[in-house]
Amino acid sequence: MSLSHIRPWLAAVAQCSRRVSRTAASGTSKRFMSASASKERPLESTEDWTKFQLDRADNEALIEYFSQYGSTQTRGNTWQPHHSLHRPTAPANLTLSALLASGAHFGHSQALMNPNFMPYAYGVRAGITVVDLDHTLPLLRRAANVVRGVAAKGGSIVFVGTRADLRPVVRKAAERIGERAFHVGEKWLPGTLTNKIVMFGPDVAKSEQVIPDLVILLNPIPNVHAIRECAIEHVPTIGIIDSNVDPRIVMYPIPANDESTRTAELIAGVLSVAGREGVALHAEELARNQKARSQTRSRVRDRDSATARS
Predict the structure, then answer these.
(1) With contact defined as beta carbons under 8 Å apart, do 252 and 223 qualify?
(2) Domain residues for 214?
(3) Is residue 253 a part of any domain in this protein?
(4) How confident is the model at residue 303 (pLDDT cuts 50, 70, 90)?
(5) Where residue 142 sits, what CATH number does that domain have?
(6) How far apart are CA 297 and CA 295, in angstroms?
(7) Is 274 contained in some domain?
(8) For residues 82, 87, 91 and 96, what is the CA-based torsion angle, rounded to 10 degrees?
(9) 177/299: higher pLDDT
(10) Does residue 207 fall inside a structural domain?
């Protein structure tokens, strides 16, 4: 084919390709161009400004109306694993889901289950005893009521957790209640309660209250000697009881997993919140008594002054 015949065909192909490229470029610009941006235009008159304000007011009204139907969850109110230690749940708000999430239902091997733990066992799965949380929840709330009652009467409470992972738990729980709560994070010294004169000295043992009103044990088995001393001194005890432990060793058992740090944080947090509520009730009672005494003194003073004038 001669060159004269090829040139018209090449010119037509080039013109077609330029047309296609221009169409593609314009289509791309239209595709990625914002529809709202194309409709926007500057405000040219007072009517435009008034219409803009009305549209904005309508949008704000719609947002305010539908905001109550949306989610209110934020980063601040979303649950995090460390909240069981720093933001414990109140006893009234505790649920089975929270206990289940903390692993409180895991017991020990079926071969290690104590026969007296049978009423608190839900069953066995894969050779592991499953704790019945339907018993754990009411017993935990009962223990919380005991802690609240002791704190409301001005009693002293001791948290005992001698494992390394339980030391910050008992410390935080005691700090949450206040000055009437104490914690033992190291080894329980034998004779702390039964040999108080030697442990604290005769002056302190006679002038100060060294016997607590309530002892809470997060790991009872390594602290059996502490439970014995509490029994000798008639101190009520609360303890987390696993499937390999006899529930009768403490006065108020809480059947749960005693090897889980999260379970210990949850239970200690619930009990400490109950103790804090009891401390608040005790402070209110003291304030009422102080007010009543001051009113009685004022009435007696007024009566004496009236008698003196007569």
Answers:
(1) no
(2) 90-291
(3) yes
(4) confident
(5) 3.40.50.10490
(6) 5
(7) yes
(8) -30
(9) 177
(10) yes
